[in-house]
Structures are given as structure tokens and as C-alpha cells.
């Protein structure tokens, strides 16, 4: 089936996302987006279907358009599983893959090119491009989804779909969600994916460079948060169109450092405080997730310095465990970090009652040291942290300490919150570990030096 030609000579030549024709300086032949190889996307679809029984259907849904109010929409962000399997960055789309007599085919159901709609809302990829540039075996208007599914289900035994579907006709066909199979694939990153994650980290570096130069008394957190995104995109240069903030950032200072995910970002900074920043940029769908803790005055006080170095040691020693041949899991690394945290706090004269395991876990260090990272900030949530580490996994390492105002703890440490977070590629051996965020200053000396320049 062919799409009717658009009556608009401008939109008929446009697509709904950057391609090698609209962005030849960024996207080359054989790619559907920056760093997204068509051959790799096709192989993912084949791998998924090979994991299912013969005579199976797998159905994946694009993310919906989300609205700020009434018909005012947010910027579009594709579902991570859908993007991983397709490279397609539009709403109102459904991918149907089926295996019949061990022959695998993929069909995209999507918006048609339409003069009136595209004049109001911008161009879409359309049916023809779905086949020509995105490599699907066939494509049809989204309006024909149900009729095609009815035909397919008559000839198949097992069907599977994204478990989040609310589509009534499709829901009756769903026996086996595909989310777990896809996330098992996503947790090990390809070389192309690691390059995209490295680029996201490199772009985020420019934002942190700005923060280290601009953090000072009287500046408000929201100004710094806005500046972080702006200077990251500015540093990205020609890659800026493929870059956006990865998540709502944390810019906490003073007592707000004791709140793990403080995102109001509306307070003025004061000398003597620390500012805990948790922020990262997304590039071509892949995320950086970085935390740094910065002294507003440009210098750490002695208690801040001591506690900061204790946390930095936990980060550095824990990172050394992230390799496949160690046999470790992320839970093993977290347990190691807890024990090292206790050891380091003892050296800082924390009383025994203040560093018991339940106090560490529930008060001082209440979060896990790590999560998987990729197309989502908290990536592949169905993959357990008790899984053995494999080369190519990308994870965060983010120890933190949050000392409340309680006489159980040394008075000069009360009210201090510190988190330091890197993004790390798990190596085959220890020498293969790759810290993607290594260029973002994190030692006391490097932070203070950058702030003095």
C-alpha cells in the first residue's frame, strides 16, 4: 500500500525526525539517526523474535504525546523500548513483528503524510519512509491496525505486547509481555550505544564547567539549572539539535542537601553551604546521570572536606569492582560500599551507634550505590541488581551521605549532604573499566581549582 502524495510541496519532502537528507552533517548512509545503525536495529528485531516461539506476534507501542494543558503539548519523548527496536521518534505508531514458519517480518503502523495536519503540526515520516529509510518490511496507516491484527491472529498461536497497552482490541491478544526480553537485550550496550553515552557525558561536562565557574553566593538555584542546560547545548555545537536535558535536575543547597531528590530549585545560595547537583543531558536518546557537590564559597570547610573525601573514596574503590571476571553483582558492590562507608566514618569519629548497619541504610546512606543507565536514566528496571556483571553494561556509581541534625552524629557534620556520581562501562577485566564522566572534576583539589579560575 502506498501513501497518497502530500499536497504541500514543502512537507512532502520533510520527515518527522532528523535524517541523512535533513542533517547530512550528522547522519550518514545506513543510519536512521545519529549513531543509530539501520543494520543494528534490524538485528535487534530479529533477536527478539528468535526468543519467541514460532507463529508469534510481538506488538510494541510508541509513547503518547503528553500535554501541559489542554492542547499545549510537551516536547515529545519516545518510549525507550520502542526507540531501541525502531529508531522511530513519533507518536501514534505501533510496531508489529511476527514469526510464521520461522520467517520474521516487521510492520510499522504510523501516521500518514497529510497536507492539513502537517501544515499545523509539522511533518511526519509517513508510510513510504518507514519502508525506505527505517527498514520495515511493510507499513500501513495507523487506522488499519485492528483489521491487520485480526488477520494475523487467525494464523498465530502466541502473541506478546508491551504490557502498558490500553488498546482494547490488542489487549485481548496479549499472553506474554515483551518488556523483559527487550530489557535483557538493552542491558548490554553495543559499541555504538557506548559512544552515544560517552557523547552525552561529554556534553554534560560543559554544563558542569559552567557551574564550577558560576556558583557563588546570591545566585539562585534555578538560574544555575537553566545555565547548566544552556551551556551543555552550547558546548555540544552542531550536536545541539539532538541534545536535551535528561531529567528534572537536582540543585540543592544547605539543608536541602538532605533531600535526595529536591527539584524545586528556587533558593538563593549562601556562602558556607554545599550545592548538591544531580543533572545530565540526553543525547540521541541516551542519558548521562551525574552528581557533583560544590562549595558555594569556592572552598570546602574542613568538615565538608573530610566527609567529601570519605565519600569520594567509596566511589573510587567501588568503581574498581565493576568488571565481569570479578563475579560481582551491583548488590555486591553496594554491600562493599556500605562496609567501606562505615570504615571511613569511624576514622571521622562517628560513634558506633551512628554507623550501625540499620542507621547507615535508613538514615545516612539510604539509597543504592548504582543503577543501570542507557536510553532511560534508570534503565532496564526489570533487570535485577543481583545479576552478575557483564562487559558492556553501563551503570552509575553514586555513594552519598546525608547527616541529619541529630546528636547521634558529630555536630560539625550535621546538616551536610554529599553525593558524587559517575557513569561507568563495566569491563571484561579491571583494566577495561571505562569511566565515561572522568573529565568532570570531582576531587576536592580539582573542584576548588576549577572554581578559582
From TrEMBL:
Pfam families referenced in this protein's UniProt entry, alphabetically: AMP_N, Peptidase_M24
InterPro entries: Aminopep_P_N, Creatin/AminoP/Spt16_N, Creatinase/aminopeptidase-like, Pept_M24, X-Pro_dipept-like
Cofactor(s) it depends on: Mn(2+)
Classification via SUPFAM superfamilies: Creatinase/aminopeptidase, Creatinase/prolidase N-terminal domain
Cellular component, GO annotation: mitochondrion
Domain Aminopeptidase P N-terminal: 36-164
Superkingdom of source: Eukaryota
UniProt keyword annotation of Hydrolase present: yes
Alphabetized GO MF terms: manganese ion binding; metalloaminopeptidase activity
Assigned keywords, A-Z: Hydrolase, Manganese, Metal-binding
Swiss-Prot/TrEMBL GO biological process terms: proteolysis
Family the entry assigns: Belongs to the peptidase M24B family.
Protein name per its UniProtKB record: Aminopeptidase P N-terminal domain-containing protein
